[in-house]
Amino acid sequence: SLVSVNEYSLIRGFFGSGIEFDDTVENTTVVVAGYRLFIGDEDGIEFDTNMRDSTVSFTFNGEIAGVDRDGIGFRSRIDDSDLTILQNERIAGDNYGIDFEDTVDGSFIRILENRSILGDRNSGIRFDRSVEQSGINIAENGRILGEDYGIEFDGPINGTLVSIEGNRRVVGEDVSGISFRRGVDASAVSISRNREIRGGDDGVEFEGIRDSFVEINRNASITGDAVSGIGVYDDLSGSTVDVQGNGQVRGGESGIVFDASLDASNVNVMRNGAVRGDNIAGIGFLDEVADSTVAVNQNFGIRGGDYGILVDAVVEDSTFNINNNGGIR
What's the pTM? Predict the structure, then answer.
C-alpha cells in the first residue's frame, strides 16, 4: 500500500494529533512531505499502532509540533521497517521531540539533517524500550535539546549499530546529553564529529558496555556540568572503548570516569585536547580492573581538581600505558 500526503500548508488537530495512524501499518509505504506546519493538541504526528515491513518517511516539512505530548510519537512496536525523518525545520513536543515508546526490532531509523528537535520537559529523542538487531543513525542535525536528556536510550541496546555523528548541539539540560541507561550489549556505538554534547550531570553516559565497541571520536566539546564529560558505570566487559581526537572533555567532578568494573576490555584515551575534571580527576578508574589494557597517550593536557589520573581500584593482570601526554596535573 502507498499513503502519500504532500504539499499542504497546514494540518491542525484541535483535540488530538495533527496526523494519527490508529491501526496496524504493514507492508505499506507512508510519505509525508512538504508541509509548512503540523500541529496537534496531543502529538504533531502519532503512530498509535504497530509498524511492520513498512517504509515511512517525514521529509522537508516546516514545523511538526505536539502541544501537550510529542512532536512525533511512535506508541507501538516497529519491526522490520525503514523510517526516515529528514530535513524538517522544527520537531517539538511538550514531552519529547521524537518518542519511540515500544521495541524497535530489525529496523533502520534515520534522523537526519533536521534543524531542531526539541523536548520541552523531557528529551529531544527517546527510545523507551529495547532496540534489537537494528541500525540507528542520528546525524547532521542542528539542535537536539531536552530538559532532561538530549538523546535518551532508556531500554537495552542489543546487536545494534548506533551512529550519532555530525550534529551541531546535543544537550540535556538537567541530566545527560547522550545516555544509554540500560547498557549496550553486542553492539557498536559511534559518537563522532559532533560540535557540542552537554548534560547537566554527564555529557555522555553508559550504564554498562558488554561485548561491544564504542568510539567517541573527533567531537569538539563534551561537557558534564556536575559529574563527568564521559561516564561509564556499572560494568565494562569484553569491550573496546576509544576516546580519541576530541577537542575538550570536561566534567564538574571528572573529565572521564570509569566507575565500572573493567574485565577483559581495552580502553584508549588518545590525542584529545583538554581532559579536565574540575573537582576530582581528569581521568578516573574507580572500580576493579582485570585482564584489561588501558592506554592514555598523546593527550594535550589532563587536569583534575585533586588528581590528574586517579586509579582508585584493584588492578589485576592488566596493563596501563601512559605516555607522551602534554601535561598531567
Answer: 0.95
